[in-house]
Amino acid sequence: MSELGIGTKCVQAGYTPENGGPRQIPIIQSTTFKYDTSEDMGKLFDLEASGYFYSRLQNPTCDHVAAKIAEMEGGTAGMLTSSGQAANLFAIFNICEAGDHIVASSSIYGGTYNLIKVTLAKMGIQSTFVSPDATEEELSAAFQENTKAMFGESIANPALTVLDIEKFARVAHAHGVPLIVDNTFPTPVNLRPIEWGADIVTHSTTKYMDGHGSAIGGAIIDSGRFDWMAHKEKFPGLTTPDESYHGIVYAEKFGKEGAFITKATSQLMRDLGCVQSPQSAFYLNLGLESLHVRMPRHVENGQAVAEFLESQELVTGVNYPGLKSSPYYEIAKKYMPNGGCGVVSFELAGGRATAEKFMKHLKIAAIETHVADARTCCLNPATSTHRQMNDEELIAAGVPAGLIRISCGLEDKEDLIADLKQALEACR
Ligand SMILES: *Cc1c(COP(=O)(O)O)cnc(C)c1O
């Protein structure tokens, strides 16, 4: 359905009912699948035929939803994972092994930073972090002989920096490695990284895609464009026989379009098991059906709140790529002409004491460790996620004590602004 618009794909892609079949994607809440002969089942195990045998590997509900997201992103194949964390782990670990190295943007989600910096290092995969604003020469200088992938976030959580995807893709491809882009914040409704050169796209579907705060989940989409065989010696996991699968060479048997997701499913999911439940996939699909209607409202509310905050005396700074004052305004306009997302961060004069007082007075915006669902919520990192740090450490980490992240939901913007206004007045 690639000729269709993004809205039609949100509603219809990934599932076509049979004559008389259920209109909605059925929840196949079954761990296992029945066959008449062991020969039938053997073909599935040998990857000679496609079909289902055990829901840790594949489940029809999850596959329909993954296929929808793949169409939305313009990729050739996709898979769901148990969380966004699992999606990024699988995307990197499907390419890299002990002894390898990756180059990653330093402006990324804290959980992903820890995954790359600490946990992947324990697994023998080293990393170098680069500024997303670095020049191509500076980015190139971070590459080593054993570098196997480059990683960044299209709009970073929570810093709200915007990735120059074309620049990162050029540098990655000049070094013969794929670019992985976490596209959680803009979603494919506002930005499709594959159109700008990204090779693999990941998601925390927990955020806007689900959009109702109902189910944790993740997704990985392959563009089908990276030529693993052209860099055969770099990617032995994809280009040499897999002993655990009767010597299958994924890049030969499944080609550029299918190798990456087939390996991630039949090898990583088989062995690590970070699977999404069919029930969660069903909730995710309900969210996807209205994603193209919800994203413009999140953007409208984010823009209105950012502009309001910028006009307030007590607010010393606002980060939102849709503001003309943002250093990312031009680049955001290029990649996201319809806007990015509804998350805004801003700093209050008076540090954590004012931030705490301000948040106590909010009536609509709730204090939560979450972003990107229908209800507006906010967080002061200094008194929550980063509370072990002192003021100097907070500044070094880019989250000054008075910084508040607000995720604008789907309420009326006039009400959100009135709520912020009365809380600011209470802090005078
Ligand atoms: C939340 C988030 C993740 C992690 O996703 P979970 O579903 O919470 O595991 C990864 N990347 C980004 C950009 C996120 O916002």
Strand tally is 12
Whole-angstrom Rg: 22 Å
Distance between the termini: 55 Å
Number of self-contained structural domains: 2
Sketch the topology as an H/E string, one letter per element. Answer: HHHEHEHEHEHEHEEHHHHHEHEHEEHEH
Which stretches are low in confidence, meaning pLDDT under 50 for 5 or more residues running? none
Helix content: 25-40%
CATH superfamily of the largest domain: Type I PLP-dependent aspartate aminotransferase-like (Major domain)
Main sheet attributes: strand count, strand direction, barrel closure: 7 strands, mixed
Question: How is the quaternary structure best described?
Answer: single chain
How much of the sequence lies in strands comes to: 5-15%
Structural class from helices and strands? Answer: alpha/beta
- List bound small molecules: pyridoxal-5'-phosphate
Q: Outline, from the CA principal axes? A: globular
What is the residue-mean pLDDT, rounded to a whole number? 95
Q: Indicate the CATH architecture of the largest domain.
A: 3-Layer(aba) Sandwich
CATH class of the largest domain: Alpha Beta
Spatial order of the strands forming the largest sheet: 1-7-6-5-4-2-3
With helices defined by DSSP (H or I, 4 residues minimum), what is the helix count?
Answer: 17
